[in-house]
Each structure stands twice: as structure tokens, then as C-alpha cells.
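ok trying this again, last paste got cut off
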Amino acid sequence: MNKKLVIFDLDGTLADSIESITYCGNDALFKEGLPSFGHEDYKYFVGDGVAVLVQRMLEAAGDKEMQHYEAVKKNYETIFKEYCMYQVKPYEGIPELLIELKRKGIKTAVLSNKPHLRTIEVIESLFGNTMFDIVRGQMEDMPKKPSPDGVFAIVEQADCTMEEVLYLGDTGTDMQTGKSAGAYTLGVLWGFREEAELIENGADAIIKNPLEALTYL
């Protein structure tokens, strides 16, 4: 396929961060007297930025009117600054995939709906500051995924064409992002969502472990 750039989602694709998100979310809810939820719940709360995460948490907690929205969002953001890396680790096979991409001279990038500073913190903590050529989290001047704008910005910075891009993600939002940008889009099964969601949202192919991505280069 002659790919020159691989763009990765972060949570659920590069990093197993569900412990951190669950801890911070439940603490934010607890401070407002609201119930907590398990890892499997948070796998479906996450993926579309902090605002949507908090909305989904509150809906599940029974606050349909979002009366606690501002308080819980503020709580979450404060707690997350401290516990962003709580028990976060790379998925098995990800370091090996990144090393092989570097060996092949293929550029690598991260596009996440996690806030930009937290995205950088996670990437540098797990992989150092030289493994990825471009890292972009959610920023005020750029629409979040599933908007393709972040992909376009990365591709322009990497000086390649969309036909030369491979996009990896674990949610329907990621599949929509990659497909709407025109990138070849791989759904990954080691993350937060199921195969059916990935296929329904346009995945070009499905992979079960990170090193399988090498066959699509």
C-alpha cells in the first residue's frame, strides 16, 4: 500500500488507560454524591472528549437534566491533572510496532480527543519524546473527532498525501474520523469497543493485535 504515515488514536489504541479514566470519573462523581461505575461502563463513556464523557457519566447516574455537569466536569479535570497516568500502560505489542515503523522510516502521529497537554503527558511518559513525529490532543482551535480536521492538519505537517496514510483506532468515532478524511482505516480489537461497532462505522479492515498493522503498509 506504500504508506508513509501511521496515525494512532491514544486511549484504547496505544494506551490502556481505562483504570485512570475510571478512577478520575468515579472520584468526580463521588464528590457530588453520585454513584460510581465500572471499567466496562467507562469504555463506552469515553472516546468523544471530556464534555461528552461527563454527559454520559451523568446520564448513567440519573442526572438527565445535567444539574451536576459543571461541578463534575471541574472535578474531573482537576483530578485528571494529577491522576492522568494512574496505572496507564501501553498495550502489548505496541512498543514493538512503533519500533518497526521507525525502522522502516514511516512517520507516526497521535490524534486524540484527550486534552492536548494530557495527551502529550501520556505519550511522553509511555514512549518518550522521540517515538512520535506529531502529537495532537483536543485543542480549542480544532474540532474534535469525528471531524477529520485533525487528520488533515497532521497530514499537512507530515507532508504526505491521504493515500499514504494508515489510521488506527478502537471506536466508531475513530472509524468515522479516518474514513471521512479519506485514510485507510483499521479498527483494533484490543481496545474499548466491539468489532460490530468498528465495522458499522466504516472500518476498512479489522486487526486483533498491533503487529498485524504492518501488513497494511
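PB: full thing came through this time. Strands lie at 5-8, 15-16, 89-90, 107-115, 134-138, 165-169, 184-188, 205-207.
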